[in-house]
Each structure stands twice: as structure tokens, then as C-alpha cells.
Amino acid sequence: MELITNINVYQEYQLSKFDSTMGIWPYIRLISWYKHRIDSHRLKIAIQQIVDSVPILGGRLVKKLFSPLKVVCKPYKSGVGFIDIDLGEQEINIDNLLDTKSYVKNGFDIPQKSADAINKDTPLVYVILNHNHSYYGITLLVNHFIADGGTYFKLLEYLSRAYEDPEYVPKSEPLFTINFDKMDDFIAAGLKKSSWKDKLLSSTAPLFYALNIFLRNKNNWSYIECILTKDKLDLIKRKSKNISNESAYSTNDALFEFLSVVPIKQFVFFCNLRSRNVGIPENYLGNAELLVSDLTKPENNYMLKHTDVRKSVNQLPQRYGLISTLTWTLQLHNSWVKLQNLPSFSGELILQKWFEFDDEPNKTVTLSPVQTSLIYKITGNQYVLICINLNDVISQIEKKLINLGVEEIIVENLQSNG
Q1: Nearest CA-CA partner of 319 in 186, 191, 210
Q2: How far apart are CA 242 and CA 346, in angstroms?
């Protein structure tokens, strides 16, 4: 592994309380596949320009006793990890979109969790280039302490543009706004408006979340993964619209309802605050995705309606049910689609896929202890949908997908994943 270091200044950044809670999550990571050649030297120049412009990307996590978590950036010493793997004559098969290997074994001691990088000489950002004579794959890994989906996809876009245009970074500074107090200030203002019960439940929810990771009986849970085309997503939305009087709702709202097949008391989704007028700029570095939590209605037999989601999108509530918070028997949906760009690196992207090292025993994405779903774009017209839920729920979702005409579906028991 080669370090591409910040050559400019020594800097320290104190992370916010909100960012400092992200240690349980793995590095955010996708692999982008191309049929055209990616030049290693040009890619390293692009990384150099970005880390010089945003030194925190080349920093290291430092935590001293009774002190807040910091990122320390030392010029010429710490930096972004760059790995170039030439696969030679080894064939790369990316025809099966749900079983695309990354062709990278983790012999580089890249941490499994973001917190594993604390007080170690471990990069917060890695770029991996692996290739044979036909395909080139670029993997970007970013520590969750300094990034969420919004940060991640912006950085991937900047990397692609810097690769294509050597003058892009100098013309575009600053690439990111770094003011970690803004999220803490926003959350504090929201808590002032919350009821005492919601304040109590919101403060204890992370504890119950952590407990559920260890206490969940995986034998009762399954994992489903499938590919949805844009036509299928549009069909889901049209079916919802036929029974709705709502004038504005998204495909994501309709998908959330489509995946709700049993009554639930509480639903949760991620909302990117950068796109909302709350004082957090579009190029804000760090975590600025709020977990919006709301309750379903008893008059609908606690079945989730996309109209509930739309109302919550507009109001950003954080309302909690006691039982669902204690047990985390709630439904959570996460969509990367609006955040995603499909970087070209001077050519055409043919596939973008969640990255896992080939020698990892588990699917990292199945770590969630709650009923959850994730959708993200892999090509201009195709999306991967992943759901984790109780066995009977997954079987009902599978039937709905089959009735929709979805052909490529994988269902596994979580116990088989370790």
C-alpha cells in the first residue's frame, strides 16, 4: 500500500458528538467497474490534489483519555491509502450483478469497523485500483466518522472529475465545508422542541440498538437481494398513486410502503439535511443524515402508508414508540439513489456495486439488528434492493417481487452468513 500524503499543513479537527457515534459502522464502500483503462499515475495525481485541498481526508483518528475524538493531519506522514492490484491474466466476471466479486482479499489490514482506526496509523480513506487486461475497478473506502452517503458520493464525484481534469480541484476549492458544530447545533435545537418521553427514548435508543446486535436470534431472520429496473420502480409508484390523493410523493415513498407487509408501530428513514434549508451547506463534510422516526396510525391497523412517509419527510419528526424503541421492532429504510452519481473516470461506468473483501465471512450490509431495507443504483437503469427481516416477512416480500415480474432474487437465512 502506498500513502498519498497531505503536503501542505498540520491541522486538527474535533469531531462533533454526532459524528463521534459512528464508530460501529464499517467504512462506506462501493466498487465502480469500467471496461476502459484507468491510468494509475493519473489517479494518484487526482488523489494528491484532493488530499492537499482537504487535509482531513489524510488524517488519523486520535482519542486521548477524557478528551473528544479528533482527526490529526500531519503533512508528509499520514495520508490516503492507495492500493494498485494487477490481476494479470485472471478473468473478471461481472455478468451476474448480484454475485460480482471485488477480486481483492483483505491483506492490507483495512478495519472492519470505523472505530478500529482510532489511535492507529490507519488511513480514513482508501482508494483501491484492481484490473486485468479487460476490466478496471475503482474502490473508494471512507471512514464513517468523517462521512455519510452524501459526503461519500461527493468525494467519489470529485475524484472522478480530478482524474479527468488536472485543473478541476484548483478551480473548485473549497471542495468541502468543515464545521462539525452545525449538526450538533441542529440536533440540540430539535431536542428543545421534543417531549420529555421522546428525549428519553432518543437518548437510550443507541443502547438498545447495540444490544439487539448481540441478542437477535438470527435463525428467525432472512436476507433478500434483488435487482429492480427503473420500469419496476415506476410500476410500484403508479400502483400507489392509483389509491392515493397525494399530489406529491416519491418513488422512494411508494417503495417504503411496498416493502411494508405486516403491521408495525414505528418507521424510520434517513434524510439528507444538505438538501433542506436548515443551515447545512451542500458540500458539508461529515455526517448530516438525520434519522427521521415516526409512528403509524391505529386507524390503518398500523400498516405503513406512503402518505405517512411523505408527511414525515416534510416535518422531520423524531417520535418514538416505547416498545419499538426497547425491542427495535421497527422498519427502517435507507435510499442512496438521490445521493448517487455514476462517476465516469473518462469513460462509461458499467457497474457500481457494494464492496466486500472476497475473504470476508459475512455480508457487512446484514449487520443491522432491525427490520431494514436499502436501495442503491448500480447502473443508469438498474438498482439493487436489499431487505433484512423476519422469515415470514421476507417470504411475503419475495412473493410481491415475483408478482411484480422481478426475476433475479436471492434469499438467504442470516444464520448461514455467520
Answers
A1: 191
A2: 42
Cell of 145: 466518522
Phi then psi dihedrals of residue 208, to 5 deg: -70, -30
CB 316 within 8 A of CB 290: yes
317: its cell numbers: 419528526
State the pLDDT at residue 418.
46
Q: Which of 189-203, 268-282, 396-410 has the highest mean pLDDT?
A: 396-410
Counting runs of H as helices and runs of E as strands, what totals does the chain give? 10, 16
Rounded CA gap, 10 and 3, in Å?
A: 17
Task: Return the closest-CA partner of residue 146 out of 284, 44, 50, 265.
Answer: 284
- Rounded CA-CA distance 51/76 in Å is 11
Closest C-alpha to 159, from 2, 288, 49, 36: 49
What average pLDDT does range 126-146 have in this prediction? 96
| Residue length of the chain | 418
Which residues have C-beta within 8 Å of that of residue 43, sequence separation ≥ 6?
A: 82, 127, 129, 138, 163, 345
Cell of 417: 452468513
pLDDT for residue 216: 66
